[in-house]
């Protein structure tokens, strides 16, 4: 396979590299300050023509091939710039399941960064087993009234809108009684509770309590009871490494660790092997996307690979820096979360066994 840039891709890479050299240093790359200014970074990328590259032009994107997103991620990592805001899974969910009216209303603001979003899926008792969620949506006139408790909700404290899953039919089988809504986060009846992580970050995740919050019925995505297919679309794209842009960062960190280590390190060597494996896997996935191949349950395999690589790199980082280097310690601590966020590794293995290998059928 030929991974070299085409003429157009090379020109795009050079233009992006020049812009990053002038502007990347203006934005923090980690910690609470990064999360506080992520919206500014999003809009800066968009205004320069570097965000929404593979998304529909009619909503403000550029309709470019997915390879341009990979170039963006590679150059961002190379420049030491903040990560690209991750919204593709929400856009895919709304792009596939929302009505044209909802798409025209909400996708432009999502893409250009003028409206911030969060995802209201997980609950204290419904994480990987999402179908057991208990948040309710009860019809009252032209609105639904929302009551429940969401957790691990990224950006919830700054979000304008939330793509929310709630149970509209408690009598239906649990996968079929769930509906999806676009709900305003700027209203009474919503309480924010930030979650402090062991890495010290306090604003990345939050708990959200809904008590009598309201959402217009015409902001339901799809029909009543059709929330589960949307959820599967969202988590499927969320689990694909080709859309997350982590691979270049893993590779850069491993190279930095190798330079800092004075002797052979088995942890660094294994992290290098794992990182290269994931890089090639992502390239294969990208090639499949360009050929029109879509993935469903294969996203669980991607998620497992991401977890293994992240944690291999994390172990290598702590083997070099111990607990005295805050940045390397943070890389290790955050890598532990990969086994849980986006669906636990145990659940991903069950999905692979049942849906890909046909075991237990």
Automatic annotation (TrEMBL):
Residues 118-211 form the Acyl-CoA oxidase/dehydrogenase middle domain. This is Acyl-CoA dehydrogenase family protein. It comes from Gordonia hankookensis. Residues 225-357 form the Acyl-CoA dehydrogenase/oxidase C-terminal domain. Belongs to the acyl-CoA dehydrogenase family. Its cofactor is FAD. Pfam families: Acyl-CoA_dh_1, Acyl-CoA_dh_M, Acyl-CoA_dh_N. Residues 7-113 form the Acyl-CoA dehydrogenase/oxidase N-terminal domain. Keywords: FAD, Flavoprotein, Oxidoreductase.
């Amino acid at each position: 396979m030929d991974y070299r840039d085409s003429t157009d891709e090379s020109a795009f890479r050079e233009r992006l590299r020049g812009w990053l050299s002038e502007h990347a240093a203006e934005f923090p790359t980690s910690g609470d300050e990064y999360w506080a200014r992520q919206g500014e970074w999003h809009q800066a990328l968009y205004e320069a023509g570097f965000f929404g590259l593979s998304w529909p032009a009619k909503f403000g994107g550029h309709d470019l091939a997915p390879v341009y997103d990979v170039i963006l991620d590679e150059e961002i990592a190379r420049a030491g710039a903040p990560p690209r805001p991750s919204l593709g899974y929400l856009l895919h969910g709304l792009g596939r399941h929302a009505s044209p009216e909802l798409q025209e209303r909400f996708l432009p603001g999502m893409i250009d960064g003028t409206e911030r979003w969060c995802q209201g899926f997980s609950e204290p008792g419904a994480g990987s087993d999402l179908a057991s969620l208990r948040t309710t949506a009860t019809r009252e006139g032209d609105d639904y009234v929302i009551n429940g408790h969401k957790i691990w909700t990224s950006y919830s404290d700054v979000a304008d809108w939330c793509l929310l899953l709630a149970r509209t039919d408690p009598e239906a089988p649990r996968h079929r009684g769930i509906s999806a809504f676009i709900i305003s986060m700027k209203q009474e009846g919503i309480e924010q509770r930030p979650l402090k992580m062991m890495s010290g970050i306090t604003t990345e995740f939050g708990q959200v309590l809904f008590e009598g919050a309201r959402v217009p019925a015409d902001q339901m995505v799809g029909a009543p009871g059709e929330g589960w297919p949307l959820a599967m679309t969202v988590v499927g794209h969320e689990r694909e490494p080709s859309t997350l842009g982590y691979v270049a960062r893993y590779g850069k960190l491993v190279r930095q660790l190798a330079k800092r280590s004075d002797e052979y390190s088995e942890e660094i060597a294994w992290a290098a092997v794992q990182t290269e494996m994931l890089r090639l896997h992502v390239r294969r996935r990208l090639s499949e996307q360009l050929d029109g191949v879509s993935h469903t349950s294969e996203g669980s395999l991607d998620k497992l690979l991401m977890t293994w690589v992240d944690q291999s790199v994390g172990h290598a980082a702590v083997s070099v820096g111990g607990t005295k280097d805050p940045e390397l310690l943070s890389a290790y601590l955050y890598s532990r979360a990969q086994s849980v966020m986006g669906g636990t590794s145990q659940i991903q293995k069950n999905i692979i066994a049942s849906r890909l290998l046909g075991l237990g059928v």
